[in-house]
Amino acid sequence: SEERRICVFRVMGPLQKSVYWRLSLIFVFTAFMFFVDVFTVHHFSCASLRESGNVNFLDESPEKNFSYDISNENRSLSIAFAESFNVSTNKRGTENKNKHVMSSECGDNKLREYGLTMYMSGLLLGSLFGGALSDKYGKKVLLVGCSTIQAIIALMPAFIPNAIFHLTARLIGGIMCCGINIASFSLGVEWSLPRYHVWPPALLSFSFSIGMMFLALIAYLASNWQQFYLAIAVPQLLCIPLYFCIPESPRWLLMKKRFSTLEEYRHESRKDQENLDLILETVGMKTQQPIEQNNASERISDFQHFKSQTIVQRLCIMSFISLSSALTYYGICFNVGNFGVNIYLAQFFSGLTEMPTLLVPLLLVRFGRRTFTMISLLMSGSGCLLSLLVSKLCDMPSLVMALALIGKLCMQTTVFVSLLYGIELFPTVIRQKCVGFVNLWYRIGCILNAVLSPKDGISLEAMICYGSGPILGAGLCLLLPETSGISLPDTVQDCKKQPVPSLFSKSRKVHVPGKDCSGLEPIQELQ
C-alpha cells in the first residue's frame, strides 16, 4: 500500500501537482464557510448567565444589529455570537430576564436554523446550473469565480453586522460552495490518469477535514464575531492570485479545440507532456464512438430509458442511500455541540475523524465498490445506534460523541465511494441525469437537516433515524452489482449485463494493462 501511494505521486508532473495542492487549499477554505453556522449560535452555559444576569433575549426580531462590545471579555465566542444576533446586553439584569434566558434554552437557535437552511438551499440552487456553467465557460473560470466570491462573502459580515445580510450571504455562499465542488472534483479527476481517478476526491476530502479542524482552532482563539470572520476571510483573499494559475481541464480544452493552450501545458515539463498525452489519448478513445450507435441512441428518448426496471431500481436505491447519508452526516456535523462536550473540541475531532478517508482508494482495490459501501453503511448505522444505547445506559458524553463521530467517518467514506459508484451504475446515455437525480435527494437531506435541527440536543427519534437509515441502505446494496474492474456501461442493456454477486462472493481483481511503475499492478478505476 505504501509503495502504491508513492507510485501515485511519482507519476504526477509538476502541472498536475500544482492542480492538486491548489484545489486542496480551496477545500480547506470551503470547510471554513461550510461549518460557520456551528459557531454562530450555540447553547452556552446557563450557569454563567445565571450568575451574571445581564443578558436578555429578544425573540421578536432576529434582525438586531450585532454588537462587538461585550462587557465580559472572558465570555466564549458562542455567547458573543448569540448576543450579536438577538441578544441585548444590560448590566441591570433582573430575575425575570434570567428566567427568560432559561426558558429560551439558553440561546435562540432559530437563526442558526435559518443560516443552515439558506446555505443548504444555496447548494441545491447551485447544483441546478453549476454543471451547465462549467461546460460552457470551463471549470477553471467557474472555480476562480466561485472562490473569489466566497472570499468576499466571508469578509463582508465582519463589517456589515446585520442578520438579514448574514442569511443572504449564507445563501450565496452555498451556491459558491456547490460551484467549487462541481469544478474541483471534475478538474482533479480529469487531470489524473484513468487508473488514479479515485485519488483526487480522496485528497480533497482529506483537505476538507483539515479545514474543519482549523475552523475549531480559529473559533476558539477569536474573541468576537468580527475577529472570527476576518480570520477566515483574509487568508482566502490573499490566496486568490494562486487560483489564476490553475490549468484548465484538458478534456474541456480538447472539446473546445483550444490546442494552443494544450501545447503550452505540454511544454511545461517532460512528465507533464507524457501524462497529458495519456489523458488526451483516453479522451480521444471515448469520443470516437460509431456514428451509427450515436444515431440509434438519439432515436431512443430518455423516458424510454427510465422505463427500465433496472434503472428505476438503481435510482431508488442510490437516492435512498444519498438521502440517509446526508441526514446522518450533516445531522452529526451540525450538532457536535449537542453531545454535552466542549464545542471546539467536538468540531476539532469531527474533522480529525475524517482524515482516514485518504486511505479509501487502497481499501477500494481490495474490497470493491459494493462490499465497501455495505461495510461503511453498516458501521455508520451501528455507531449511531450504539451511541444512542450508551447515552441511555450511562452518562458518558465523550463516549457517545466518539461513537457518533465513528459513524460519521463511515458515512463520509460512503458518500465518497457513492460518488464513483453512482457513475458506474448508470449508462452513458442518461448518466448525468441519473447522477443529478441522486444528488438532488442528497441536497434534500441537507435541507431537511437544517429545517428539522434539534433545539435541545439530538433527540431519540433523530438518532434512530441516523442509525436505521444507513443499515437499511446496506441491505439494499445487495441488489446492486459490483462495478470494480468493469468498463462503464453505455446502454441500458450493458447495465443489465453487470453481474450481481452473492453476499459472500469475493470481488475479482482485474488487471488492466497500462503504464505503471515499480512493476505494480495499476489501480483500475473509472475508465
From TrEMBL:
Its main location: membrane. Residues 23-485 form the Major facilitator superfamily (MFS) profile domain. The keyword Transmembrane applies. It is a multi-pass membrane protein. GO terms for cellular component: membrane. Keywords: Membrane, Transmembrane, Transmembrane helix. SUPFAM superfamilies: MFS general substrate transporter. The chain crosses the membrane at residues 20-41, 116-134, 141-165, 171-189, 201-222, 228-246, 315-332, 344-365, 372-393, 399-423. It is found in: Membrane. PANTHER family: SOLUTE CARRIER FAMILY 22 MEMBER. This is Solute carrier family 22 member 13-like.
